[in-house]
Design brief:
The structure is a single chain. The protein is built from 46 helices and 6 strands. It has 926 residues and is mainly α. It starts with a strand and ends in an 18-residue tail after the last helix. The chain binds zinc ion.
């Protein structure tokens, strides 16, 4: 997961199908194939297999005569992970020479699961002629050959299939063969819709309880990121065959991107069914690696390797972990072991690269995907991962071109389709380039607050580059999306991710615009500051830093830049810090993995920022910078921390003490528990409670709200003052300070109201209601500088309404800062102004004041176009024309002077116009 600003909501993500509908009927296509004499095509290449599909569909399915009861025991052993028993049982049946390929298939599958590839191959050799028409057996054999040094033989086994079918098609039309064939065709790039309709759906129609077909549909849907479809098929499969751990595992995969809780539940169910289920153990290990819990991951990989010591994905994951820990020698050894059985296996490099990308090591990720593609140029997962990595490191041209290729080769790849659509939308965005930033925004939005975005980014760059001693050498791209779905697709490839405000990939920042955030948007300035801080820390460490540290620094720097940004200690966090929710500093990475709730994730951000504050307050910023340099050089995190901060246990203890002190000092008198308090109580009852528990914040708060509802303002004032004694910085919505403002307003105590509102906006960055009221009060009292500040704050939250711009313009005009009004006046033009002529006139006036005469003239002419008899506009036009004339005269005089000067220069340097001259002696210019 990339680095992000997070809100409390959980991540909800679901897939969209490109055509929004289920893949349609195949019959039309089939008849056209038959009409085209497709059957007569001589080629037996897999690339031209439409005839094959046609002929097989033309035949009707028959079910193989296998009796499920006979096989139940063998399969049960396999499902529960008793591989050895399964092998013994099935081998006995194979040795008896029973005329059914089930036994050989189950035996081969079990042998390969435990890594005995050569034996599996030999089983095939012994039954090859007997079951010559079994495609599933052939597929298993091809795998066995690949992993036992016979990749060419394995390939031939698959390549020969078309010719076999062409010779005697009716021998291949049972449902098992059709299913296996469908999988081969998909792997070969056949149209997913064709395979689904012609093979899978037809198989299901002939037998709705055909579990393997449901599983195959589920797998296909997962492959195309169509998770709704996957869940549907797999849920049905699970009902029919609850004992199969593979089904639960696939359900975990289908839920993984949208519902972590469900995914975990299914994954655990799979492992409960079979504690040696390799795919599930690998997925659990991956989850641990993602949360930097390497010891836990290693424990699970050891379990996998106990089952199959050659398991390539397990070795690939070990290799990825070694890389992340900076142990490159071990990484190489693991990769070699992963490829030992099948040297051209592209999945190994693909997996290592994917894991590195998930840890922001995009450049190394790109290298690994290229390596995978060298082994197998047609390996789609590597191609697609490469495209996404390239888009995240700013190599857009190559990235988009691969997305095109993937999209063309695989029409049902939902992610490719989504990205392609996004690219079209992005092409309509406005691009602004300045000071090392490339900012892409919706065209209208860029006119409204694009300049403010650039301004904010410039400030962030100046501040943070200096603080962390890093000069950026490459441009940073910032993309701001008015539609949340576009943001999600750019960021995750799929819709969803509703909890995220912004994400940083190192050189690329993606963010949500206020337009996508409904009534109460977050402060976009703080989001961009936070994300830009990730740019600095990620680049400083060459993307080698644990997530908690990067998040911790970003949240810390928000608060350093602006006291109203970032997260601050509150009663809830105090309680969490004093409970088992507190995580030792050395274990903070884990806090980001599968947090118990959205609140816990938010708390992880907060605690990480406290850890950073602790490190800086107690050990200084220079030491933290040194730590970042160490990380950047590839020193593993534990080692780097030990080098700079000493013993881990001591550091953990010292941080715990720091937090203890902090929480103890936070509103020490207040009792924040609400235990034993009446839920609803009258004023008198509350007063009784408070007589007993005078420090009860909850009772005092309820008392204030009760008094407010009774409109007993004088008493409410006393009560709220007491409330604020207990918790002075209570800027929560509905908390002490906002109640204080409300009461003061009712009592016409403007000074107190103003002071409460000001405090509120000092402590929270996106309280729109408070800002609107503050603007009103400052306007009434003609406090122009304060009005300008409040308007600026409002624009940092919601620039897409007129209020902030209008207040800003009024303030700066009164302050005599005409140039500062221009941007806001232009913004207002985009916001459907009620009086466009007036707006054109005011803009013209400001432009005139700063000497932008041509623009001023244009605007005043627009004003007169709207309202020809606009008196002030007419006068302004005259003044502008006069000024332009005067300037023209001056310019003419200056031109003459310049021309004369140019003549003189020409004598000295006649070659200036064209190729730069090579001076043969120093020239002295006037
Ligand atoms: Zn972040």
């Amino acid at each position: 997961m990339p680095l992000d600003s997070h809100r409390s909501q959980p991540i909800v993500r679901d897939a969209v199908r490109p055509d929004g509908a289920r893949w349609h009927s195949y019959s039309v296509m089939l008849s056209s194939l038959l009409l085209n004499n497709a059957l007569l095509r001589p080629s037996a290449m897999w690339g031209q297999v439409s005839w094959l599909i046609a002929i097989l569909c033309w035949l009707s399915f028959y079910s193989s005569s296998a009796s499920a009861v006979d096989f139940a025991e063998a399969r049960a052993k396999y499902f529960s992970g008793e591989y050895k028993a399964c092998i013994e049982l099935t081998r006995a049946e194979v040795d008896k020479g029973i005329w059914n390929d089930f036994w050989s298939r189950q035996l081969m599958q079990a042998l390969m699961t435990v890594g005995r590839y050569e034996e599996a191959r030999d089983v095939y050799k012994s039954v090859e002629t007997k079951f010559a028409t079994s495609i599933p057996l052939r597929v298993l054999a091809a795998q066995a050959y690949r992993f036992s040094g016979g990749a060419a033989v394995g390939k031939k086994l698959i390549d020969d299939i078309p010719a076999l079918i062409q010779a005697t098609p009716w021998r291949f039309s049972d449902r098992e063969n059709m299913l296996a064939l469908g999988k081969i065709l998909l792997a070969d790039g056949e149209d997913a819709r064709v395979v689904l309709d012609a093979f899978y759906d037809r198989a299901l129609k002939s037998d709705p309880k055909f579990v393997d077909a449901q599983i195959a549909i589920g797998e296909l849907a997962i492959d195309k990121s169509d998770y709704q479809e996957a869940v549907k098929s797999l849920t049905r499969a699970l009902e029919l065959r609850p004992e199969d751990p593979q089904i639960s595992f696939l359900l975990a995969k289908a839920w993984a991107s949208s519902d972590a809780e469900k995914a975990t539940k299914y994954l655990q169910a799979a492992v409960d069914l079979n504690p040696k289920h390799v795919d599930s153990l690998l997925m659990q290990a991956e989850n641990y690696i993602d949360s930097e819990a390497y010891d836990e991951a290693e424990r699970l990989l050891a379990l996998v390797l106990e089952v199959n010591v050659h398991q390539p994905e397990a070795w690939a994951l070990r290799g990825a972990m070694a890389h992340l820990k900076g142990d490159y020698k071990k990484e190489g050894e693991c990769r070699t072991t992963a490829l030992a059985k099948w040297q051209l296996n592209p999945a190994v490099d693909h997996l290592i690269g994917k894991k590195l990308s998930q840890h922001y090591r995009f450049t190394e990720g790109v290298a690994y995907q290229r390596r995978a593609l060298k082994l197998d140029p047609g390996y789609m997962p590597a191609k697609f991962q490469l495209a996404q990595d390239l888009l995240r490191v700013g190599k857009d041209d190559e990235g988009w071109s691969i997305v095109d290729q993937v999209g063309a080769a695989d029409k049902y790849n939902v992610v490719a389709f989504n990205l392609k659509t996004l690219q079209e939308r992005l092409s309509k965005f406005t691009t602004m380039e300045s000071d090392g930033f490339i900012v892409r925004m919706d065209a209208r939005e860029s006119k409204i607050y694009g300049d403010r975005v650039l301004d904010l980014l410039r400030r962030a760059k100046a501040t943070l580059s200096e603080k962390y001693e890093l000069q950026l050498t490459e441009p940073v791209t910032v993309e701001i999306f008015p539609q949340q779905s576009d943001f999600a697709i750019r960021t995750f490839g799929l819709p969803g991710g509703a909890g995220f405000l912004g994400v940083c990939f190192g050189k690329l920042i993606t963010a949500n615009s206020p337009a996508s955030q409904g009534e109460s948007p977050s402060n976009w300035e703080s989001v961009l500051w936070h994300e830009f801080c990730h740019v600095i820390t990620l680049q400083k460490t060459n993307n080698r830093m644990p997530r908690w540290l990067s998040e911790g620094i970003s949240v810390y720097e928000e608060l350093e830049a602006n006291a109203s940004w970032g997260q601050r200690l509150n009663p809830l966090y105090k309680k969490m810090l004093q409970s088992e929710d507190f995580v030792p500093l050395s274990k903070l990475s884990g806090a980001f993995l599968q947090p118990k709730s959205g609140l816990h994730l938010q708390f992880a951000y907060f605690e990480s920022s406290l850890a950073v504050r602790y490190l800086i307050d107690n050990h200084g910023l220079p030491l933290l910078r040194k730590l970042l340099v160490d990380l950047g050089m590839g020193v593993p995190i534990e080692e780097a921390f030990a080098r700079r901060y000493g013993d881990t246990a001591a550091l953990d203890e010292s941080f715990a003490n720091y937090v203890k002190k902090l929480t103890a000092e936070f509103s020490p008198a207040a009792d924040f528990s609400s235990e034993g308090l009446p839920r609803r109580a009258a004023v008198a009852e509350l007063k009784e409670v408070l007589a007993e528990k005078p420090n009860s914040y909850a009772a005092q708060l309820t008392l204030v709200t009760q008094l407010i509802s009774q409109e007993n303002w004088p008493e409410a004032k006393l009560a709220v003052d007491r409330l604020l004694e207990l918790y002075v910085d209570d800027a929560e919505p509905g908390g002490g300070i906002s109640l204080k403002a409300k009461i003061a307003r009712e009592l016409n105590d403007e000074e107190a109201e103003l002071s409460a509102l000001t405090r509120l906006t000092e402590l929270s960055s996106d309280n729109v209601a408070a800002l609107l009221r503050l603007i009103q009060l400052h306007r009434e009292s003609q406090a122009w500088e304060k009005l300008r500040e409040a308007a600026g704050q409002l624009l940092a939250v919601q620039p897409l309404i007129t209020t902030g711009h209008e207040a800003w313009i009024e303030a700066v005009e009164k302050l005599g800062m005409a140039d500062a009004a221009i941007g806001a006046l232009r913004a207002l033009q985009q916001l459907e102004p009620p009086d466009p002529a007036d707006l054109h006139y005011r803009l013209a006036r400001s432009l005139f004041a700063v000497g932008e005469l041509d623009d001023a003239r244009r605007e005043v002419l627009f004003a007169l176009e709207e309202t020809p008899r606009y008196r002030e506009a007419q006068e302004l036009l005259l003044a502008v024309s006069e000024a332009r004339k005067t300037r023209a005269d001056v310019d003419q005089a200056a031109d003459i002077k310049t021309a004369r000067a140019a003549d003189e220069i020409e004598v000295i340097a006649p070659e200036l116009d064209g190729v730069p001259p090579v001076p043969d002696k120093p020239r002295i210019l006037p």
